[in-house]
Amino acid sequence: MTNIRGVIGEIDLDQTLSSRERTNSSLPTILDGATKPWGMKVWRVELRKIKPPERLVRAMNLQMTAERERRAAVVKAEGEKSALILAAEGRREADFRDAEARERQAKAEATRAVGDAALRCFISERYVQAFQALGTNPASQLVVVPMEAAALAAGIAQALAFLKAEPPPPSPPPPVPSAKPPEGGAWSPG
After folding, report:
1. Cα(131)–Cα(137) distance, rounded to whole angstroms?
2. Which residue range forms the structural domain that includes residue 35?
3. Rounded to 5 degrees, what angle do the CA atoms 7, 52, 16 make?
4. Are 46 and 83 in the same domain?
């Protein structure tokens, strides 16, 4: 019995009941050494049931419960960590995509503004060139002016008239009563 206790004592508590094969393989060697002086040979030992004392069973149950709780806490903590990491990565990705969208929108607006101004400038330049060609042509006696060009010319003429108009001269300031006493020398109530 002491030999069996020694073999089982080498094994961790949670492995004692689950590793009977290991115990069965090491016991014949130990028992064979003890029975050799009597002329006996032990070929095989099989443990069918190991019944540890109640105190030991309670200790093993406490150990297994603590190990299960530890594993559950580790799994829970790893899950929370993964959730936080994924949420942070999601926020970072969303912020990155928002920034890209704002950048694309700003570029499109700038391009549109520059494009509209460039187009207006190009059209105005073509109008000026066309009118210049019409004005220098000695054969043309009639000039047809499109409606929007007429409005443009009217706007320019109005602006020039406004700039040429001189503002009226400022009116002279009203006379200020003199602070000198009358010639008689004394102030008279008035």
Report:
1. 10
2. 1-51
3. 45
4. no
**Contact at 8 Å (CB) between 161 and 153?**
no
Give the end of a domain, one of 80, 101, 132: 132
pLDDT tens for each residue of 12-40 = 665 666 666 777 777 788 778 888 888 88
pLDDT digits (tens, 9 = 90+) for 54-72: 887 788 889 889 999 999 9
Verify that 45 and 63 share a domain, yes or no. Answer: no
Our count of domains for the chain comes to: 2
Let me know whether 26 and 94 are in one domain.
no
What pTM was computed for the model?
A: 0.37
Q: Which residue has the higher pLDDT, 102 or 114?
A: 102
Residue 154 belongs to a domain: no
Residues 58 and 86 in one domain: yes
The pLDDT value recorded for residue 32 is 80
